[in-house]
Each structure stands twice: as C-alpha cells, then as structure tokens.
C-alpha cells in the first residue's frame, strides 16, 4: 500500500518534470539553444497564476494566465534577446541566459516583493479521494498526472500530425533547408520558444499551487530538467517523457526505500542521515550510468550540436 | 556604497552627543536583502530601524551601516572584513542564517568587535565556542524545538513522527525536540535541503501510527509541506517551531496552516506595553504585521541603546556588563541573559488563527518558563 | 609575436591590479586590498577554466566542483592541524597541515583526481550534453557536501587562522595579496607556455576541427582529458586560496552559481585570451561593489549589463581593448 502510494508520487513528480523538460528539449532540438532561463519562465507562470488568482478569486483564470504570461514572456525574451544567440556558440548562450535569470529573479522580487505569494487550490480540486484498493490520494496530484499525460499526448499529436509539427521536425533535421523552403524561420522559432515557455509556466503554476510561490523556485527544478533531458536524449519529446518518469520514480522511491534498506546494516539514526544523503545523489548516479552506456541519451539522435 | 549607508544622525548626532553622554556607536548590519531569503533580512532591518526611530534622540546616537550578504557565507565574511577594516564599526549584528553566523561571528569577536545576534544562534557559539563579546538576543537555535518537545509531552501526545532537513540545523532541531519529549518517536526522517515535494514523507506519515507530527522546515520548504499535507487528508495534528508560521510566511501558506500549534518566545498578542507599542508602530510605519525576526531585531536595537545609556563603548568591560544586564523594555516582557549570554526566557505555544482577512498567531498557553539552553554548562568564560 | 597589442593589454591589466592593491595599502584601505586579492583569486580560477573552455572548447558548467574541492581540502587540513588530529589513518596516516606549501599540492591533487573522474565520464559526451553533465556532477558534490555532517554540512567549516607561508605574515592583506598575485602570474606563464606547446596546439586544433586532428594521428579524447585535469587543478588551487582568504569553506563554493560566476569572469574578459579572466574577474568585483551601492535589486542591473556585453561586445573586455575578436 505504501509502495503503491510512493509509486503514484513518483509518477506525479515525473509528470511535473516532463512539463519542464519538454520545453527545454524542444528548444534544444529545434534551435540548438541551451536556455538556463527556462526556470525563470516556470517562476513567471507561478507568479502570474498567484497574482491573477488573488485578484479575480478564480484558480482557473490564474492557470490560464500562467500559460498566457509565460508564453508572452517567452516570446518577448525570444524576440529581444534569444534570437540574437542562435548563431552564437553555446558559451554565449549560457552566459546570456544566466544573465536573464538574474534579471528575472530580481525583477520579480521588485514587482512582487520579497515574501512568498499565496496560491491555493479551489475547493473542487482539494482534498483526497479514495482509489480502488482503499488508498487515499490527494485529488490534485491525480490532476497533475492527468495534465502531464494530456500534454504528452497533445505534443505528440502536434509534432506528428500538424503542419507546425512538420516544420519543427524539419527544423530539427536541417535548419538551413526549411529556410530555403520558404518557412518563416523567425516566426517558427518564436512560436516554439513561446510554446516551451508556456509549458514551463503551466508547470510552475501547478507546482506553485501545492508547493510555494517564491523567487528562485525555478532553479532546483531547472537542474533536474537538465538531468531528464540528458537521460532522455536532446531534442526527443519521447526521451523527455521516459527520462522524467525515470527520474521521478528513482528520486521518490530512493528517498522512501534507502533509509529502510540501510537500517538493516546500521543503527536507525545514521541510516537515516546516510540514506538521505545517498538518495539526494541517486539521480545523478542514474545519469552517469546512462551516459556510460549511451552517451547520446536513451532516445538521442546523437547530435549534441 | 554611499547610498546604502544609512547615516542616522551624522552631524546632528555629534551636536547632540552631550545629551546621552556618549559617543555615537557605529553598528554594522549584515543581513540578507536580495535573493529568495530576503524577506527575513528585510524584517530584521526594518525592526532594527524602527527601534532607533522610536528611541528618538538616543536612536540618533547609532550610526548604522547596512550591507546585503546575498545569503552567501563568503560574501558575509568579506562584508564583515570591510566593516571592521574600512568602516571601523564597533558592533556587528543582523545575520539571519546559522551558516553565515558561523562564518562571521568567531572572527569578528576575535577582532574585539561586539556581535549581537538578531536571529541565528548555533550551538557551537553557545557552548565551548562562547565568547564575552557575543550575545544572542533571539534564543539558542535548539530552544523553539525544545519547547515543542515540552509541549508535546504536556499535551499527552504518546507517539510522534519527526522530520527536518538533512543539515546541521535540522539535526540540532530533532535532537532539541527529543531532549524534552517523553513519548515515543515512531519515525525520524531527514529530507533534502531545498526539497519542495513531500508526497513521499506524507505517505510515510499516513502509514505510521504516530499521533502527531513535529516538523522543522524553514522558508519555502515549510510552505510546500503544509499545503501538501492539508491536501493529503492525513489529519494528524502538526507541531513546529515558529519559523514556518512566522508572519512573513503565513500569508503564503494560507488556510492550510490554520490550527497548527507552534512554539515561540514572542507573539504579536503578547500582553505588555513595549510589545503593544512595537506592533502598532511597525504596522503604521511599514503597513504589515511584524514577524518574529522583526521583533528580535527590535529588541536587539533596544538592548544596544540601553547599554549605550549606561556605559561608554571605549570601556569594553563596562559596556559588556551593561549589555549583560539586559535592562531594556523587551517586547517579550521578561528577558535576561544566562551565563553564556544567551536568553533565559519564557516560551509559548501559539496557534495559527484567522483575524479578519489575515492569518496570524494567537498564544494559547505556556510551553516552558525561564528556559535557558543545553550548552551553557560547556561555556567557560 | 613581439610586443603586440594583446601583450600590452595583458601586462596593463596585471599592473593595474597590483597598482590598485599597493595604492590602497599605502592609503591604509585594507578592504580594497582584500577586494583586489579576491579579484586575483577569481582571476586564477578563470585562468584555469579558460584552459579547458577557451583553448579546448570544453564548456564546463561544473568547475565549482574543483573550486570547492580545493577549498575543502584546505579547510579540512587546517581544521585537523588546529585540533591536532589526523585526517585519515587508513591506508596510511595523513596529518593535518597549516602550511600553504603543503596544502596547495594536496588541494591540486584532489581537484585533479576529481577532474580525471568527472572528465573521463563527461568527455564521452559533447556539446550541450557536456555542459549539462558537468553541471550535474558539480550538483552531486554540492548536495553531498550539504548533507555530509563530518565537516559542517551546510554550516561550512571555519578555521579562524589563515594558513602560514614561510617568511610572510599571511594575515596582512597586502602580503596575502602578493602570494595570490604571484601564483596568478605563475599560472598565466604556465598557460602561455602550454598553449604554445605541441600539446596546446593539438588542443586548439581539436577544438576547431576534431576530424582533422584524428587524421593527424592525435587522439582528441586524451588531449582534452589532460586539459580538463590541468584546468581542474588550477581551479582547485584558486579554491584553496579563496578558502584561506575567508578562513572558511562552505558548500556555496560548490554551487552552480559559482560555476556560472567563474564562467562569467572568462567571458566578460574575453574567451581564449590569456589575461581575459583576470580582467573579467576584476570588472565583476568592481561591478558587484558599485552596483550593490545603487540598489537592493543590483543583481538585475548586473544581469542587464552582462546581457549587453554578450550581445554587443562578444569579444569581452579584452576584445574591446584590442579591437578585434579572436574567434567567432
């Protein structure tokens, strides 16, 4: 029973990571851009959701606002800064997006103040539900799993079945070619970037609802999303999905099971601290193992660019 | 640096120097004013400034230099070096975080500066590492956890689940709780520092047969845990130290915090005259309710002013003796220093309640009276 | 390659740094000497990273790992020396030390070993993967340092007294500055020699065209790994000096912000230029100091300024001074 609940937790955590990693991997894949400021867009989504929900009293309007605000922020940043970076090497991209983090974080603090913001669930989504088998589980975590699955399906449909998807795939395969075919690359890139930003903002709003809305909230998640993208393979939505679930499960189950396993060898107190220390590095060990076996990631095409 | 330097007084202070009978005292405040932890530093600064303002002319004798440590220990060390070498301050104060205090305080007092702690008070500085020039005006780090343990015992809670982040302050926290808790600890869990998803821990709480949960999760960690716990439908009562229920955090937690018991040495509804004046003027000045950190900084400034009125800083021994008397109107009502220059004071159990539109704390009873700390015996001075 | 513009600018930057410190010392402004020392140490870290990043094209976002390891080795040895206890008794007894001359090789050795392991794994990848993998390894060490209680965990480790150097009073700011600047100069000469050597040329060739290098019979992996280890060792030395500057080490030295900052020094000054990191570090510290006085939100201003430099002055400070870009 406890194990089943922990598995659900791992699944939910994985879905959340997928929302972050999907945008990151899309932008890598199509534009060859490394975007450290992706976590800032996640934060922007959460703050927009909290501000709108507080002003209107409606969580759903807040959620919609998170999508709109993050997409708008993404498009704005793409047009003002990011598009000048595509032709540059990764080094300039890292520095510029590192600078964007500073601007976003302190700008948000200037707008919203230094204290965490309030964001909570509407009554219709709060509380726990009884699952088959008698397991009580928070409804909203199930909703996040649902949203994650829906976004995964939607992205698959978008990329496999629509004109935009064809262009995105063409862009991943050969950037010069699609320009020659008369596709407006500048617009395509703005759309892709805004789409990735909207997904990150959406994730921020969902997570902010059950965690906390504060400056700097995006940074730990960003690093985890990197790990997911590396494990899954750059540019692969499928890889991001599998990688996210793998990381989510490893982290959750590692934290839940390791201290127990270690307590068979040591006394409870040191097993707890050592177990917690080991659990916190477990996903990085996972990443190292994947890289030794498959340097291009599980579903990577092999082009790190 | 000029714009950030708040010269309170200046020429006017020198003209008035005769009034209080002493030279102006130069105070260096190192606190966190940027980044995610800035809320605590802002309240520390504002509480301190308010005390100086409320003191009128006496407050103008304090020349305050404020610098932002960015919550980075190496930056704090460098600011301390600068304040000591270039600004030549007499007194240092303001650090919020224990790891920053450990980096700054031992070196500062070794260079003959007074350090008055507005918050952080790690065990190392209370025991063998105590120092005649170091005063903690807040508490000793273990105190609020000890009070929570005492409260859990008094409330007849037989089995408890305890949880803290896996770092020194977290380990001290659980040790402090267990020091005064007489029941059974069914599970002891260390979480990751900065962790924001507690689904796994909540599942363990649900599966355990504990009657209550004690947790220490400062800042965003606590906000995340309480919201998720409220959603989970696990109804076991929560107990914690005041840090996760402080006025700076409560608005972000929302109703999920309602009814939670927490322990503190101060509360805004503590009935004494200085406290009433403090809460009223703080609200008037800054338009928000004061937090625990603001109250501690307010007391620190008043302690400093009381010593300045009694002794000259040039006579370090007399000044130290004047500080140790703690002869100031504390917002906590009762306040005195123990032999290791950490507070001996009362601790209260508070409950999170809704007053109109705002969430705040209400005292529901005493937790510990005239409580010192566990390290005083190891302090040889 | 006589006295060209680059060399003049390089020497001018060093002279300016030294002049600032000496001037401040004469005026009795100890804190400015400390700031100049910090610039020299960060410059040294940047010089180390530049070897891998500028000359080798290895964009490591995890050099804080080596910076932190150097710092922790220093802190651990010094704290054991103060307590009089051995650091380890198995497989052989290692005693603590408070002699810089003994600590530096240990710090560099430990950082070099870590760089060997991290590099051997990370160099199996390339491009964006490499950036993220090095970042993740540094994060792993960071979380380990926070949760490992033996040496202070998140609280860090203080050692109160700066380690000693024969014949000098390391506690005097100007003397410690002299030590750090001398090491910086040594590292600069070392870098200049290495990059002009057969090894250095092969490294730069591997950056520009991997296939052709292979065709010439050079194994890029071994060359890059060597550069990565050398780079890690220099950064480890910088970490050791930084620990001594503050007499304190903490996991913050291992954080990804630190990695980012070291990278900023290199890029701010000019990638692949000998003295670029020194100019970058000095400029960064100056900005931090000046902007910090302007507003509580100074980090946003710093961000905007960095953005402007990346977008409009891609050659960095030295690029502006010498009026040309080294490589696109």
Task: Please give a structural write-up.
The complex is a heterotrimer of chains A (305), B (381) and C (328). The longest helix of chain A has 30 residues, at 2-31. Chain A has 305 residues and is mostly helical. Chain A contains eleven helices and two strands, in the order ααααββααααααα. Chain A is globular and about 65 Å long. Chain A has one domain (2-120, 137-293). Chain B folds into two domains: 11-139 and 269-337, 3-Layer(aba) Sandwich (Rossmann fold); 143-264 and 347-378, Rossmann fold, CATH 3.40.50. The two termini of chain B are 38 Å apart. Chain B is an alpha/beta fold and 381 residues long. Chain C has 328 residues and is an all-alpha fold. Chain C contains 13 helices and four strands. Chain C has helices at 5-26, 30-55, 64-83, 100-122, 127-147, 173-196, 198-208, 210-215, 220-246, 256-269, 276-294, 298-312, 316-322, and strands at residues 86-88, 94-95, 157-158, 248-249. In chain C, the strands form two sheets. In chain C, strands 1-2 form a two-stranded antiparallel ribbon. Chain C has a two-stranded antiparallel sheet with strand order 3-4. The radius of gyration of chain C is 19 Å and the shape is globular. Classes of the chains: A mainly alpha (305), B alpha/beta (381), C mainly alpha (328). Chains A and C meet through helix 4, helix 9 and helix 11 of A and helix 5, helix 10 and helix 12 of C.
Q: What is the straight-line distance between the termini of chain C?
A: 22 Å
- Quick one: biggest sheet of chain C? 2 strands, antiparallel
**Proportion of residues in extended strands of chain A:** under 5%
Structural class of chain C: mainly alpha
Strands across the major sheet of chain C, in which order? 1-2
Name the strands of the widest sheet of chain A in spatial order.
Answer: 1-2
> What's the β-strand tally of chain C?
4
GO molecular function, one term (chain C): branched-chain amino acid transmembrane transporter activity
Subcellular location (chain C): Cell membrane
Membrane topology (chain C): Multi-pass membrane protein
Main location (chain C): membrane
């Amino acid at each position: 029973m406890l194990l089943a609940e922990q598995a659900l937790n791992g699944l939910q955590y994985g879905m959340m990571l997928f929302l972050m990693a999907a945008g990151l991997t899309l932008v890598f894949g199509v534009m060859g851009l490394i975007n450290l400021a992706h976590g800032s867009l996640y934060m922007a989504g959460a703050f927009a959701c909290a501000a709108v929900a507080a002003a209107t009293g409606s969580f759903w309007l807040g959620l919609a606002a998170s999508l709109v605000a993050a997409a708008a922020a993404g498009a704005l940043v793409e047009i003002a800064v990011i598009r000048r970076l595509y032709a540059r090497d990764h080094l300039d991209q890292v520095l510029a997006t590192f600078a964007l983090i500073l601007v976003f974080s302190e700008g948000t603090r200037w707008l919203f103040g230094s204290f965490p913001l309030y964001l909570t669930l509407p009554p219709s989504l709060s509380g726990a539900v009884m699952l088959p088998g008698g397991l009580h589980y928070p409804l909203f975590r199930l909703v996040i799993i649902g949203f994650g699955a829906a976004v995964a399906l939607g992205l698959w449909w978008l990329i496999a079945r629509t004109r935009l998807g064809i262009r995105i795939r063409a862009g991943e395969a050969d950037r010069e070619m699609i320009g020659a075919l008369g596709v407006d690359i500048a617009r395509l890139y703005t759309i892709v970037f805004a789409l990735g930003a909207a997904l990150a903002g959406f994730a921020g709003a969902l997570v902010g609802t059950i965690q906390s809305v504060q400056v700097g909230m995006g940074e730990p998640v960003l690093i985890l999303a990197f790990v997911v993208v590396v494990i899954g393979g750059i540019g692969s939505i499928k890889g991001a999905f599998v990688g996210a679930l793998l990381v989510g499960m490893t982290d959750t189950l590692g934290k839940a099971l390791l201290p127990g396993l270690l307590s068979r060898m040591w006394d409870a107190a040191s097993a707890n601290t050592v177990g917690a220390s080991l659990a916190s590095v477990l996903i990085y060990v996972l990443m190292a193992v994947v890289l030794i076996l498959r340097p291009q990631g599980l579903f990577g095409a092999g082009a790190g660019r | 640096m000029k714009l950030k330097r708040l010269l309170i007084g200046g020429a006017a202070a020198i003209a008035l120097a005769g009034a209080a009978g002493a030279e102006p005292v130069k105070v260096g405040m190192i606190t966190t004013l940027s980044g995610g932890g800035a809320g605590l530093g802002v309240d520390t600064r504002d509480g301190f400034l308010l005390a100086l303002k409320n003191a009128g002319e006496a407050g103008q004798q304090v020349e305050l230099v404020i610098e932002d440590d960015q919550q980075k220990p190496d930056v704090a060390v460098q600011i301390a070096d600068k304040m000591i070498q270039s600004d030549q301050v007499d007194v240092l104060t303001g650090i919020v975080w224990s790891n920053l205090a450990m980096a700054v305080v031992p070196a500062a007092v070794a260079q003959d500066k007074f350090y008055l702690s507005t918050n952080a008070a790690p065990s190392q500085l209370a025991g063998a590492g105590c120092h005649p020039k170091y005063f903690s005006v807040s508490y000793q780090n273990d105190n609020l956890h000890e009070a929570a343990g005492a409260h859990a015992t008094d409330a007849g809670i037989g089995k408890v689940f305890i949880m803290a982040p896996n770092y020194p302050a977290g380990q001290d926290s659980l040790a402090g709780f267990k020091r005064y808790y007489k029941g059974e600890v069914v599970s002891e869990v260390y979480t990751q520092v900065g962790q924001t998803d507690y689904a796994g821990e909540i599942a363990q709480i649900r599966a355990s047969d504990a009657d209550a949960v004690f947790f220490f999760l400062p800042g965003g960690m606590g906000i995340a845990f309480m919201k998720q716990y409220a959603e989970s439908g696990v109804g076991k009562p929560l107990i914690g130290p005041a840090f996760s229920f402080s006025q700076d955090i409560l608005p972000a937690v929302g109703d999920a915090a309602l009814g939670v018991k927490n322990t503190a040495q101060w509360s805004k509804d503590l009935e004494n005259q200085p406290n009433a004046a403090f809460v009223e003027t703080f609200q008037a000045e800054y338009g928000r309710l004061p937090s625990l950190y603001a109250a501690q900084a307010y007391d620190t400034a008043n302690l400093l002013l009381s010593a300045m009125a009694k002794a000259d800083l040039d006579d370090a021994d007399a000044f130290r003796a004047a500080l140790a008397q703690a002869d100031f109107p504390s917002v906590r009502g009762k306040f005195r220093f123990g032999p290791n220059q950490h507070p001996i004071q009362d601790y209260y159990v508070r409950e999170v309640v809704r007053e109109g539109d705002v969430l705040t704390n209400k005292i529901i009873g005493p937790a510990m009276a005239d409580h010192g700390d566990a390290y005083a015996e190891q302090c040889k001075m | 390659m006589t006295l060209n513009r680059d060399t003049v600018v390089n020497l001018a930057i060093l002279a300016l740094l030294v002049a600032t410190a000496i001037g401040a010392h004469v005026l009795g402004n100890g804190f400015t000497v400390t700031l100049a020392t910090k610039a020299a140490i960060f410059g040294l870290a940047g010089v180390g990273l530049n070897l891998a990043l500028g000359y080798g094209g290895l964009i490591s976002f995890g050099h804080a790992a080596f910076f932190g390891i150097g710092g922790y080795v220093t802190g651990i040895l010094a704290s054991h020396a103060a307590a009089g206890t051995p650091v380890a008794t198995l497989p052989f007894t290692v005693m603590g030390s408070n002699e810089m001359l003994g600590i530096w090789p240990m710090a560099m050795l430990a950082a070099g070993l870590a760089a060997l392991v991290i590099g051997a794994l990370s160099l199996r990848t390339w491009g964006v993967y490499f950036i993220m993998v090095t970042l993740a390894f540094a994060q792993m060490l960071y979380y380990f340092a926070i949760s490992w209680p033996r040496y202070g965990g998140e609280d860090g480790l203080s050692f109160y007294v700066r380690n000693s150097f024969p014949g000098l009073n390391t506690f005097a700011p100007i003397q410690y500055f002299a030590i750090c600047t001398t090491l910086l100069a040594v590292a600069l000469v070392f870098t200049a020699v290495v990059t002009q050597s057969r090894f250095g040329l092969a490294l730069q060739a591997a950056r520009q065209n991997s296939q052709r290098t292979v065709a010439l019979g050079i194994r890029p992996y071994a060359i890059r790994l060597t550069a990565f280890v050398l780079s890690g060792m220099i950064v480890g030395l910088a970490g050791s000096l930084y620990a001594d500057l503050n007499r304190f080490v903490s996991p913050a030295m291992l954080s990804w912000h630190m990695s980012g900052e070291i990278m900023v020094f290199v890029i701010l000054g000019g990638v692949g230029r000998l003295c670029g990191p020194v100019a970058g570090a000095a400029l960064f510290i100056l900005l931090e100091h000046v902007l910090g006085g302007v507003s509580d939100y100074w980090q946003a201003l710093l961000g905007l300024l960095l953005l402007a430099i990346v977008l409009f002055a891609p050659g960095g400070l030295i690029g502006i001074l010498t009026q040309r870009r080294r490589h696109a």
